[in-house]
Design goal:
Length: 296
Amino acid sequence: MNLIDSFLEYLLLEKKYSSHTIKAYESDLISLQDFCRLNFDQENISHINYSQIRSWIVLLVDHKLSNRSINRKISSLKSFYKYLQKIKLIDVNPLANHKALKTSRKIQIPFSASEVNTVLSSFSIDHSFEASRDRLIVELFYSTGMRRAELINLRMNSVNFAEKQIKVIGKRNKERLIPLLPSVIKSLESYIKVRELINSSDSFLFITQKGNKVYETLVYRVINNYFSRVSSKLKKSPHILRHSFATHLLNEGADLNSVKELLGHSSLASTQVYTHNSLEQLKKVYKQAHPRSTKK
């Protein structure tokens, strides 16, 4: 087994990374390996130095890759070299003193509560399989804030109707329980009734009309299609619904720590990304209500 394969196995078995993340790491490492083979006649990337890595970074910049994407690739390499240090193959991480490229902060604009409600009210009441499934997908994203991969990997036994909660398996196989609203319980019950009519032996909660587990592009398409009808926002994705969930909770006074737990974040720093829009809402209310504010 070569070093890259050994590292990827370590990420899978010990770090419990998702298959999507592991594929990204593999792509980054192979890209660097191919570059070093071609330009430095160097096959083994465990022996390259920072100057060689920097040449690769320059190439990525020349190819118009964004600083954010380059930083993500560098993060993959840093993890790889830390692993080599861990198994005593190298003494010094060649990227130990590397400084990340500057990136502009992206502001994600959430859907409004009105937009979400308009989408939910647009579903037909004929209780067809796809309508029931798609409505539930929208409701779960908005009422739980779960990630797309988490929703796709929900199983039939993830839902606890007695306790009115759902078990989500997050990053690195961390479990968390999220309470379910009465309206979501009702949608779950409706969906499961029509799901039972599909000939499927699959234990995953969300399936296709053919009985197979749903996939990432299908879930993205559901959100994009329905929200394109009601919203002019540039991005219309499952992540924007997750963002809407967090922003609306914070706007209504939810505690940041509580939102952190619901989202499955490991630190508050990750959750604070969602506070920007809450702050803007706070400023708006302040300007409208404060006696000394200047109203235009």
